[in-house]
Amino acid sequence: MATTMQEAAQKSTRPNQAEATTEFREIQDRYKLAQKTFQSLLKISPGPDRRTVLETACSSTAEYAAFPIKQAERAFFRHINEHTGIPYMLRENVSQPWHKPFLLIQIQLQGGPLPNKLTHAARKELLGDRGQMFFILDRVLRCLVDILGLRRDGRGVIAALDVLRSIKAGVWDGNENELLQVEGIGAVKMDKLASAGIKTIRQLAGLQCYHIERLLSRNPPFGQEMVLKLKGFPLLRINIDVLGPFKEGQAQPGAATSKLSTLSTNTNTLWMTRIVLGYENEEVPHWKKKSLWTTFVIEGEDGRLVWFWRGSVKKLENEQTMIVCLAVKKGEKLGVVFACETVVGTTIRETLQID
């Protein structure tokens, strides 16, 4: 996801066919996917949900032909599909190469152990292939986000970012197992915390070190070490104010961070809007010793992409203020989603009404 989506959300008109062809070609070149893969991704339906995004990302990828389901793996993958409670079961015989990443990523996001249906040699070989399969899936999903963004499919962009975030975090966004992202928290400790009403990392980060030790029956310095880990968990915040209709000839504020969205139509009005993005952490947040990126999406009532911004969390240190013009109808309710790109539990969802 380079600047393609951000630029698309700031153009005065929809790209003509020649421009669109050029931009789609740039997306394909950026992610270096096979022609067959890219053409299949272009066929994704408008406004896809999370299942459609994940299924399309796996089934469209010609590169997965290099990872067929081996004879020794068939019982393993059938068990995942039929007996592990994954959210998106296959409705066909488990046999195709794309079934492998589709099922493997879901069992990983469940947070439980792999089924005991493989020999030691087969398990070792599968785990060796898993890293490469997930690397390909990461590129495909990012490509799909850009495709949906260029089409101005806000609903699809949000769903694709949800899937990407979940895979990078290792747990499904919105499920009650987000605590598994924390190093040192496994299923047993997560259950202990849940029984005490602590189900999110934000809640856990708000506890004193001795409370953590008491809840988890651990001795010092476990609690202090946990507090230090949680200190970098991003606590995002947003503030949005609709300033009023944009009037022709009106001067736009000259802040360097200001951007003007002119996705205008015959039925929409441009509304001046102030967007302030930031975080509550005392220092620039980081997670697992990695720098973080954030995405901010505004979706119209009809699912169209109204606004998109992607930026490093470092840019939010003194708050990121943007004065934008949103092409929307009076009275329209907009969906707002702000989240870290790779960390579950950071998502802020709000509704913005244009009055």
TrEMBL record:
Q: Which residues form a coiled coil?
A: none
SEC63 domain residues are 21-354
Where do the record's region annotations for Disordered lie?
1-25
Q: What's a single GO BP term from this record? A: meiotic cell cycle
Q: Where is the composition biased (Polar residues)?
A: 1-20
GO molecular function, one example? 3'-5' DNA helicase activity
Q: Which Pfam families match?
A: Sec63
Q: Known SUPFAM superfamilies for this protein?
A: Sec63 N-terminal domain-like
Protein name as it appears in the record: SEC63 domain-containing protein
Source organism: Clonostachys byssicola
